[in-house]
């Protein structure tokens, strides 16, 4: 093959070396506009997994890298005058300059035509004259920009400012210095890369950056290689204590806003993107160099395995895209956490450390327990102490009081529409459905959305509380839960609004009824989707009538014996549609500004709260973002949550979306939790109000991790309880918890131990006279101590 490579960073160089090893007859030319000695940056970090791949692909490169690595397993978190050390992580880093010199030398040894200080020919020329054109030209890729229509780039510049620096202080571990300055919270990401220095990345929110006066040089254009010395002088002063007399080192160091790069496609004909040109991941979860070298390995392998360039590039993207997407999801969660770091500045240091470690959701409490059991135990103890609880237990099994209602544990069965009522009357199905969840160990069981009127139903199968017959049926269910379990039960009240008069879910979700339909209503005559009814815009009389229906349903809910009431103001139903500018296009006092859009939902909430017993809590479910341009955002949700808290809400059940058909949610594990977290930190916790997190949370490990980090007070799980009605009790068995937070009813008690599955569960006899050494045994705490050759060879 005849290959053109644009960009002489680690990704481009490593790809060239790999291709030459696979077939020396490949003609490879690499252009790099900078000189060979122009190396920007300090250290690069690799995972053990990536190092294993490099070792398999090029032993020469791997062996040299291994001799130059700084290795350690500890993370030191400096916060509020304390340093917390967490071990068992496993890091390997080296100088970026040394890595580039190694790869440059390797390419020359193998016969790659490397042209430094030379601009590449136009990409059109390269396309015509080469079999393959590799665009490894970085985050500001000119090739990607040239063919933007084909690649479909999505560039997302973030709000934090950061600067790559170094220091001659050799850190012993990965260092997070989190400092609450007079200007706001700033943080240092630091790690050793040799026996001579460490990377020292300064990061802060743009507002803090402005307040500290770093914008003094904002309009200056620094040539390549020139650093922002005024800013660096200020950094030396601000972090004098952390530097401890050591120097700050610069290398093309200037303020940057991190940009997340995504592309709809990584290939166009014989042109392919690699590394930062194709994708970026925030530095707080790893190294862009690591991703680029993994790209190179995969691309070289695919080119070697497939007969045509087209097939190879298709295979490359199919193989790498899921890996990169997973990394980018973790990176997005991490960068957003650091953008909001100021909201955690008053957290207890132990909780803060755990919060920081679990920010990307790749580390959890159980994962941490394997890495550093001593710190994991300290987190559990800290949580119990912070809650004033005598017993140390998994966080999910610690009791919680919401608005005077005592719950035995932190698990909620989320409201789930079952579409199985007749004329709004819940029957045997609902009794078995909700009763089984109560017997399964949850602290609080929530009904589906119980509709306040016949025309307020979503479908003909939705239940209601608009007749006395419905009330009596609900009372039978509530009485069963109270008599047969220690769970509490809550009713969620709502009105379908513009999403009403549709088919049962399994007949066509959100599809309009073909017969027997009723007129949908809403704040404006705007349909939910192109196939849905155009709702009638409510006038004052219609709004009064619906408010009164909520009141009547509330009275019946109390008469039925429910312990808690939730007002459904999420998911695009009536109250939610008043809150969202997507569905509320009114021009009167109930539309326009957020304060106006809040007016009717708050009127309903106030009316409900007025007739619901004062000793029983009322919560509100909200959609924290509409996932649609022009809709409500996370900022709006904070204001909405604050308004409901001021009107007496005892809890906020934080969901997202489902407001409009054209939404584009960012699905993923625990993807809604960051919204709950923000509302808890900024609104709920200061007011003593509970926050319930919900959405793609399915493991007890994730539940405990969310609670221990202080991101929510209660966790609602829906589909997980459909899969396993006794999920909470099974989670207790898995964690070997025995206590009041998870009690089996007498009839089921014989099943409280996990049954054996296969013969592989059997206890094995000892068949060796002498104990064999444990080759897998590792050290929890490993510090980077360059003077010790033995330490540099160890790795967790």
TrEMBL record:
It comes from the Bacteria. Residues 396-732 form the NADH:flavin oxidoreductase/NADH oxidase N-terminal domain. Residues 3-328 form the FAD-binding domain. InterPro entries: FAD-bd, OxRdtase_FMN_N, YqjM-like. This is Bifunctional salicylyl-CoA 5-hydroxylase/oxidoreductase.
